[in-house]
Task: structure prediction
Amino acid sequence: MLTEVAERASANGWIAVDVTASPGMLDEVADMLSARAQELLPRRGREVTSVGAAGFSLGLAPSERATTGWRRYMTALITALNDRGTGVLITVDEVHASVDELRQLASTYQHFVREDLDVAIAMAGLPSAVSALLNDDVLTFLRRAHRTTLEDVSLDAVEAALGQTITTEGRSITPAGLAKAAAATLGYPFLIQLVGFHIWRQHPDTTEISAGDVDAGIQGARRRLGTSVHEASLADLSAVDRTFLVAMAQDDRPSKLAAIASRMGVDTNYASQYRARLIDAGIIEPAGHGLVTFTVPYLRDYLQEHAATMGLDTLKLDRPHNGLV
Result:
């Protein structure tokens, strides 16, 4: 989706730079924007030379570069591009509130807006990570941003996409195998990629993708989902949040809040506070009166398999809690 947004921005005459939220991202944004602006900006111009005179260097590491220096450079560069009718789009994938440079980028963007610059930011990440970012006390202005939750893809569309990709590349798969592969994705976009990749790579030199390839590919995709999505989703949660989820995972259907509270050894009022937190984080969702279910595919199975290694094999809280943890 971020790629599509960037392509549309480029088609409308903007420059798009695409980064992943990680240390060094501010350098990457500045370097990419400078490189892509070369054809539009003169080699020597007042905006650029004034920045150089201030001693700014794109080669400096983030730890050596003052935030004000990065902001001053970016403001000059974006202003120069705006003067030539070109806007700037910055897309950031895998957002996470723990990345300090992402917080710096978001804070600086607020000043870009105040200065009426033609610049936009589009960010994407797991629901829990986006929620944590929006709840950051320093970045409250981000709560005014337009927020979109990407819905699951219909299984018919998944089946059609997988089938077309397989046949276009000169291979084949039985209708039953194709239906099984599509169903295993549960319509979850990342799983569509994972299942397709893993069933393809089982025996890439054979023409037909066998039933065994489908089964092995599904298992490989689910393992990768665990390391890429489940671990990341759980990492931002407290121990009590995770205890709530493990209590939920004991059911093979939507869970009753009263049952979850009983397994945790707390009252329903206390458990309901964690229910609200986890819904806000996008990990669970309401499933009827007094019921909740998981939103992330196969998270129930992952918790059942890894509860002990997470230190949550004993559900009862060790001590009463007067406040949220």
In short: DSSP finds 14 helices and eight strands in the chain. The two ends are 35 Å apart (CA to CA). The CA atoms of residues 100 and 164 lie 42 Å apart. The first strand starts at residue 15 and ends at 20.
